[in-house]
Write a structure and sequence with these properties.
single chain, 159 residues, mainly alpha, Helix Hairpins, 2 domains, two-stranded parallel ribbon
Length: 159
């Protein structure tokens, strides 16, 4: 039964993360409209970062990055990295939704596609771009569609 208890604990922690995301991103809006985080959880019109990251059901959700079985198999350090990545995405979404942008903020989905951590620097991005450009360039036997996608994603990051 310790496995069952561990799964229940993971579920509780993930549900707390979901409520915390709602508080971070929508606290002022919901307070003004007399909503509570619990009421928001029951609604389905709000797109949460949490939904893209976690799935608590037994069957895998194709949209979710981490399923319950994946999280149960991770050690403490891997859990910490997942939570860090989750919060980076939450704050990135919060900043972009509220018009707060900075030159040091990069889209975490593009960074993930390039195989970079969410806190990558411009130098890391440039270095990884060069590596992937060599790999995907059609002159070196790479797929032209992947190369075009790489170029588009890199432009999004540097603009």
């Amino acid at each position: 039964m310790p496995d069952r208890e561990r799964l229940d604990e993971i579920k509780r922690k993930l549900r707390r993360l979901k409520k915390l995301e709602i508080r971070i991103r929508f606290e002022g809006s919901f307070r003004a409209a007399n909503y509570s985080p619990d009421a928001v959880l029951k609604g389905s019109r709000i797109k949460l970062v949490w939904d893209d990251f976690f799935h608590l059901g037994d069957k895998g959700d194709q949209r979710a990055k981490y399923g319950l079985a994946d999280l149960a198999a991770m050690d403490r350090e891997e859990h910490k990295n997942v939570v860090d990545e989750f919060f980076f995405n939450v704050y990135y979404r919060y900043y972009t939704e509220n018009g707060i942008t900075g030159s040091h903020l990069y889209d975490p989905e593009i960074l993930d596609w390039m195989g970079l951590p969410p806190d990558a620097t411009s130098e890391d991005i440039r270095k990884r771009f060069r590596e992937l450009a060599k790999k995907y360039h059609p002159d070196t036997g790479g797929d032209s569609r992947d190369f075009i996608m790489l170029m588009e994603n890199y432009r999004k990051l540097v603009d």
